[in-house]
Amino acid sequence: MTNTALITGASRGLGLALARSLAEAGWHLVLTARGAADLEKAAAELGATAIPGDVTDPGHVARLSGAVPELDLLVNNASGLGVTPLPPLAGYPLEPFRELLETNVTAPLALIQATLPALRARRGAIVNITSDAANGAYEGWGGYGATKAALEQLSNVLAAEEPDVAVWWADPGEMNTRMLADAVGEQEAAAATDPAKVAATLHDLVRSRPASGRVSLQ
């Protein structure tokens, strides 16, 4: 039986690295991201199904869930950083903050709700990618961190409510990604961990299937 994974934010960074790792292990992959060109390139490389779109769009969520009637793994990796340069909370614009909540909290929940029947049927697993900004008081990271804290509590309750589905909220640590570069600059981001190394740890997590909970990938 071939395992199937749905990965959001799969055109670059950790999402793409994990897709490569799973593809090498023979998984069938359904990949999504907003950048259609990069996504199609990744899908062609991996023999995966590409469904480009925005996870905040209910129609796109419906298309994704329709593409995975059988599902073993959902990875909510797509995420927004918010306003840059990162502002203090005293001056954080509220409308961009609402949009960030939509991307980082509401959209993952919507996709979970849409795919839970398939995940329950296969006793599957959910990985919600979080951040140490969810529980660390880092200046400038309040907006982003608040959304990740909400995602962590959502995951925590989901794990209690869905005992037949493994739920992990995974902190990847600092990785050399475009998002980190946008936040802290190219030089500091270049010194961070390669996403491929983090993806290997995440793949090991999926294989070993520990109890639901918060995990650190570095």
TrEMBL record:
<dbReference type="GO" id="GO:0016491">
    <property type="term" value="F:oxidoreductase activity"/>
</dbReference>
<dbReference type="InterPro" id="IPR036291">
    <property type="entry name" value="NAD(P)-bd_dom_sf"/>
</dbReference>
<protein>
    <submittedName>
        <fullName>Short-chain dehydrogenase</fullName>
    </submittedName>
</protein>
<keyword id="KW-0560">Oxidoreductase</keyword>
<comment type="similarity">
    <text>Belongs to the short-chain dehydrogenases/reductases (SDR) family.</text>
</comment>
<dbReference type="Pfam" id="PF00106">
    <property type="entry name" value="adh_short"/>
</dbReference>
<dbReference type="GO" id="GO:0016020">
    <property type="term" value="C:membrane"/>
</dbReference>
<dbReference type="InterPro" id="IPR002347">
    <property type="entry name" value="SDR_fam"/>
</dbReference>
<dbReference type="InterPro" id="IPR020904">
    <property type="entry name" value="Sc_DH/Rdtase_CS"/>
</dbReference>
